[in-house]
Design brief:
Order of helices and strands: EEEHHHEEEHEHEE
Low-confidence stretches: 1-6
Number of domains: 1
CATH superfamily: Gcn5-related N-acetyltransferase (GNAT)
Structural class: alpha+beta
Strand content: 35-45%
CATH topology: Aminopeptidase
Distance between the termini: 19 Å
């Protein structure tokens, strides 16, 4: 995978060129909603239901109480035609000052298994390190409902389990959330 900054351009495994940028417009909300709707199993594994009509809007504004609006960096990956094909949610200075949190890594089914999800994990960590002085670690959480495939994905991205596990209960989901960390 070829990464060119500051344009945030990169190539998918099949050679198609794409780029990433922050999501901010009403069109971005609609595009993210479409992406969620292409991946209903993601919401089913995290909240117990398919995505609701305001899933994208809620995702784009949700942040921990300790994070400011400037700490939240929703990142979209777009294909050459401008269609949103991937998303990651980056929160700076969370869960602690010297860390960033990477949540929601979503990839359009047509672009899966081509390195885009791995790129979004790597890019999010690099972006955090460039935007947040003294950011030494990226943190992510994995709910057990994502199983072996989820563990393989985050571990392949260089994240290692911290051993911290917390109960995860949302709607119909009763599981465990495992924390993973990557040194930057």
């Amino acid at each position: 995978m070829r990464i060119q900054e500051p344009n945030w351009e990169f190539s998918l495994g099949d050679g198609r060129l794409t780029h990433a940028r922050a999501l901010a417009s009403d069109d971005d909300v609609a595009s993210l909603q479409q992406l969620f709707e292409m991946l209903p199993s993601y919401c089913e594994k995290t909240i117990g239901f398919p995505p609701g009509p305001a899933e994208a809007h809620s995702t784009l504004i949700a942040r921990p109480p300790s994070a400011t609006p400037d700490d939240k960096l929703p990142i979209g990956a777009f294909d050459i035609g401008g269609q949103l094909v991937g998303f990651s949610d980056l929160i700076l200075r969370f869960p602690e000052q010297g860390q960033c949190y990477i949540g929601y890594v979503l990839v359009d089914p047509k672009c899966q298994n081509q390195g885009l999800g791995s790129y979004l994990l790597e890019f999010s960590a690099k972006l955090a390190a460039s935007r947040q002085s003294r950011c030494t670690h990226a943190v992510t959480g994995l709910i057990e409902t994502f199983g072996h495939e989820g563990r393989t994905f985050v571990e392949r991205g260089g994240f290692v389990p911290t051993g911290r596990a917390t109960p995860y209960k949302v709607n119909t989901i009763s599981s465990t959330r495992h924390e993973y960390v990557k040194a930057l």
